[in-house]
Specification:
The protein has 5 helices and 5 strands; from the N terminus they run αββααβαββα. The chain is of the alpha/beta class and about 150 residues long.
Length: about 150
């Protein structure tokens, strides 16, 4: 029996987002090897510009764990977080961030403003990029090719 990795779960959620007409991004938060929260982009569905997969997953993890900080949690997301999400990740004190595909236009971790490298950033998670990059990148390319 194949046990899905957290990034595989995030990729499946990204696929669900694409089927719903949302930008295909999925996010999973893990604590002690267990998934405590998972989400997909829902901005169009909820008519909410803050309904990024990471933001929804952070809110869910905080509610599930009953804590305002997620210091012992890791976040897996299929696309490099934007500035808003990077700020929320920092404020939540996520321990480790794993992301799949880089986002040269909207990313704020290894591209753009490089939020975690700013002197005003209070917490920088360990960042591991490129986990599941091929699958996430292909899903994003296919999604946007249909819309252009």
């Amino acid at each position: 029996m194949h046990i899905q990795s957290p990034m595989d779960t995030a990729l499946a959620l990204a696929g669900q987002a694409a089927l719903a007409g949302e930008v295909p991004v999925g996010a999973v938060i893990v604590r002690d090897g267990e998934i405590v929260a998972s989400a997909r982009n829902r901005m169009r569905e909820l008519a909410d510009p803050t309904a990024h997969a990471e933001m929804i997953a952070l809110r869910e993890a905080i509610e599930t764990l009953g804590a305002h900080r997620l210091t012992d949690c890791d976040l897996y997301v299929t696309l490099e977080p934007c500035t808003m999400c990077a700020g929320a990740i920092s404020h939540a004190r996520i321990r480790r961030l794993y992301y799949a595909a880089e986002d040269p236009k909207g990313g704020a971790v290894d591209n753009g403003v490089r939020f975690f490298d700013q002197p005003t950033c209070h917490h920088r998670p360990e960042v591991i990029g490129g986990v599941g990059e091929g699958a996430a990148g292909e899903m994003l390319r296919k999604f946007f090719a249909v819309r252009r």
